[in-house]
Amino acid sequence: MRRIIAVVLLIVFASVSMLANTTAHVRAKRLGLGMNFSYLENWWLGTKEKSYSDFLKSADAEKKLGAFKNISRAGFKTVRVPISFGAWASYEQPYRWAIPEGIQFADKFIEAAVAEGLYVIIDLHHVELDNSVKGSDSTERLVWLWTEIANRYKKLDPEKVFFEIRNEPHDIKAEDWRAQAEVLIKTVRQIAPQHSLVVGFHDWNARQAMIDSKPFADKNIIYTFHYYDPFIFTHQGATWSSPGLPELRGLPFPADKRTIEVPSTAKGTWIEEKIKNYAGDSKASKMFDDLKAAKSWSEKNDVPIFVGEFGSFGNFATMENRCRHAEAVYSALGKLELSNAWWEWDGGFSMFDKGTGSISGCMQTAIKKFNER
Ligand code: BGC
After folding, report:
1. 353 SS3 class
2. Which residues are within 8 A (CB) of 177 and not within 5 positions of it... i.e. 6 or more apart?
3. What domains sit in the chain, N to C, each tagged with a CATH number?
4. 343 lines ligand 1 (CB under 6 A)
5. Probe residue for ligand 1, chosen from 309, 310, 345 as the CB with the greatest number of ligand atoms within 8 Å
6. Has residue 3 got a pLDDT over 80?
7. Which secondary-structure segment (H or E) carries 367?
8. How far is the CA of 250 from the centre of ligand 1 (A)?
9. Distances (CA, A) of 314 to 5, 110, 233, 321
10. Alpha-carbon torsion, ordered 333, 22, 309, 46, to 10 deg
11. Disulfide check for 327: which of 89, 144, 307, 366 has CB 3.0–4.6 Å away?
């Protein structure tokens, strides 16, 4: 009898230790502390007449190349490089690179990131260009783009370089995204059998969308979601997101006793709801529970996850409040051992003290929480 119990225990132990040990798990864990390098996705800097393809100015791009060194020096291990590859390709079949200069710049950026020894996530960002160009995100076009991108970068070390198939799919039903994702996963997998793919879900890579979804059949996938809660804090003053946000400014984090006035533009919208719930939503314990729910999904399904974007817009929030918010997120990510990437290095969400290229002291303290576990 004892022997039987011992054998059963051994089998249970062996299967538990086999869980969470796939290539994708191992690689996801290594990503650790990451940073988004935002610039090559700024399609909106281009003009509508040129389908935004002219957003890249080579003189500016050259100046940006040195940033990877600074990201690495600041202690980040991973860089996610969002790229609007789609803006440089034609919109009608047969597809081709209409602006070859764009893709050549992408090569340079990726090369510079790899040369720093960073883990590099090549992310197909904003391929739908906010639905401003018809057909930009059709499955055929994305298959063409991924065939090109995967062939171009398949020689890069699969231990270091990752392919994120599409950033923040939105205005697409869960099942339609799933169908498109299946096709893209197969496309990249045939070309790059060893690379890990990064895959998020509908509704802008929402955490809940991930929790409501099932993993795909491919075993070498790291799942991703974006965490911008509480949204009215992280997007206060943002003009590109929802009505009501541009008028919100100077919010405290966490909430204090003062009532936040609901801007007239937010009345009756989900932003009004968020303002009402802010006291509860800005508690570190609530944020921990949110992230823990994502972690539980990953454990239940035995797949790794990566928080691909989180951060706060800096134009209208004080650094002290932003740091307290960052600390709440970093300490939860540390405790839950979730690899991540802050949005973003040197744009409106940067961690720098105003007018400098140096990470603010209280942000450095916040980041340290990640390693305190
Ligand atoms: C978008 C950025 C935006 C950020 C936060 C990203 O996915 O590309 O334009 O600033 O999310 O809203």
Report:
1. coil
2. 169, 201, 202
3. 23-371 (3.20.20.80)
4. yes
5. 309
6. no
7. helix 361-372
8. 20
9. 59, 27, 10, 10
10. 170
11. 366
Query: Can you tell me the distance from the alpha carbon of 76 to that of 83, in angstroms, rounded to the nearest whole number?
Result: 20
Q: pLDDT by residue (tens digit) across 114-159?
A: 999 999 999 999 999 988 888 999 999 999 999 999 999 999 999 9
Please state, as a whole number, how many other Cβ atoms lie within 10 Å of the Cβ of residue 167: 25
List, in sequence order, every residue forming a beta bridge with 163; answer none if it has no partner.
Answer: 122, 197
Q: What is the pLDDT averaged over residues 92-104? A: 95
**63-76 confidence digits (pLDDT tens):** 999 999 999 999 99
Residue 347 CA, closest ligand 1 atom number = 10
The 10s digit of each residue's pLDDT in 325-345 is 999 999 999 999 999 999 999
Ligand 1 atom showing the smallest separation from residue 204 Cα: 7
Helix (H, G, I), strand (E, B) or coil at 306: strand
**Banded model confidence at residue 82, pLDDT cuts 50, 70, 90:** very high
Would the CB of 123 count as within 6 Å of ligand 1? Answer: no
Q: Is 168 in the pocket of ligand 1 (CB under 6 A)?
A: yes
